[in-house]
Design goal:
By secondary structure, this protein is mainly alpha-helical. It contains 3 helices and no strands. It is flat, with a radius of gyration of 22 Å. The N and C termini lie far apart (60 Å). 13% of the residues are buried.
């Protein structure tokens, strides 16, 4: 029978077993979701053609991306109101740390729009998937949100904007 710790006694932290969730998600995707998604896409192409399947995939992607952006907005608003629970050391500033996310967002946006357009021109409408521009635009929006959040967090610490910080 396990013994409960006395009041004031330190307890060992519980280990997070997130790796088990990742393994379970991989098995679920590999053995179930991949087959179901493939069958659903085949059905959508058979029923409505490539335009219909692209529209459905684009709308699903848009919904998921909208939820992700809203969750990020809520997280940033909470951190701006309550403060960062894990602040950066004094030698660093938030804007410089957010620069990489903004650059990756721009890169994803350019690739997300340029590659489907290139595929559309070279291979025709069957090859251009509509989720890529949605994902690229969402990455850009997320990078810009991170940059705005970084500016607010630096202003809270009384730091001027970093040199070369872009909007």
């Amino acid at each position: 029978m396990p013994v409960e710790p006395e009041a004031g006694e330190p307890t060992a932290p519980k280990k997070a077993r997130t790796w088990l969730w990742w393994i379970a998600a991989w098995f679920l995707w590999t053995f179930v979701a991949d087959e179901v998604l493939e069958a659903a896409l085949d059905w959508m192409v058979a029923v409505g053609g490539y335009g219909f399947s692209n529209a459905v995939l684009g709308l699903l992607t848009l919904g998921v991306c909208f939820i992700a952006v809203q969750r990020t907005h809520v997280k940033h608003a909470r951190r701006e109101a309550e403060g960062d629970p894990d602040p950066l050391p004094a030698a660093y500033d938030y804007v410089t740390q957010a620069q990489a996310g903004l650059c990756l967002g721009w890169g994803a946006a350019v690739l997300g729009w340029a590659l489907p357009l290139l595929l559309l021109i070279l291979l025709g409408p069957a090859s251009a998937l509509s989720p890529w521009p949605v994902l690229g635009t969402t990455a850009l929006i997320h990078g810009r949100m991170e940059m705005e959040h970084a500016r607010v967090m630096d202003a809270r610490r009384g730091r001027p904007p970093a040199r070369g910080a872009t909007r």
